[in-house]
Amino acid sequence: MQRPIQLLLPLALTLAIAACSPAEPPAAADSAATPTPAADAAAAPVAEPAASDAAPVEGVSGTYVIDPNHTNVVAQWSHFGFSNPVANFGQAEGAIVYDADNVAASSVEVTLPLAGLDSFSDDFDEHLRSADFFDAEKFPAITFRSTSVEPAGGNRLRITGDLTVKDITKPVVLDATINRFAEHPMAKRPAAGFDATTTLKRSDFGVGAYAPNVSDEVELRITTEAMVAAPEGADAAEG
Q: Whose CB among 15, 50, 154, 166 lies 3.0–4.6 Å from 206's, allowing a Cys bridge?
């Protein structure tokens, strides 16, 4: 029994010394891995303000005539899930009446001649204008007339109106953003700019061919510039 005791004594002595030794400071790598509050603040992403919290744009009352050269109504849809084509409804005509003192008294009226439809493919343009879709020979234009305009917080508006396609009229809601009111730097007249979006079902308007393989839902994205009409006989330079 003497030999096992002799072997255990050095082990017990080693454990006792280790227990009485001062603790080692934490490794530098450990302290670096523990983030400080300041580091957390620097690393955390800065939350952007919600759209409704954006600073209101100071509107200027007036009737603004839509500029077709700087207005796009772009439709996008899914084609069998393979691609997401777009088409632009150009040559927009119409006016935006804005009442800064009573936004609810504002109004929008727009006509989109199908002659301005551009899908970036001549063959497809012809197909879209055919009786399979818009039947442009019989129904040459799409129209939108607002029925209400409501402030939606900050620089946003909610515009409800009647959209008419192929003599079918349905209500749609545009989520609009006021981009700017200012004097146009070239025309030297009051100008206004807006963006808007909405989603609708094309089958509601008699253009639902190939749905649902070609998506029934279509997203519309609109951007427009409009200016107060020039005085009669005045020459206005436009960009």
A: 166
